[in-house]
Specification:
The protein is mainly β and 89 residues long. Helix content is 0%, strand content 33%. The strands form four sheets. The protein has a two-stranded antiparallel sheet. Strands 2-7 form a two-stranded antiparallel sheet. A two-stranded antiparallel ribbon has the order 3-4.
Amino acid sequence: MQGALEARPFESVLLRPRGAASFNVFGADWDFAHNHSCPPATAALVTPPGGGAALRVGVRFPNCPGGFEIAPVIAGRTDRRSWSFVWRR
């Protein structure tokens, strides 16, 4: 989760026309098994909670075989907060 320990672990993000949302991506950028950099991903599909049509968004980050983790989506063009805590029930 992002923010302070007492913060909610997630919240809805409403995107209005021409609005923006952001997210951080965490993962490796080097394929150690083959000893070379990972190829770039150029798109990701974002599906709203509860289903619905996926939205294709342009991205630019390494796509390594081990995959990557995506932080919660936040409102705004830039997410400058990293994951701060692991939230457990």
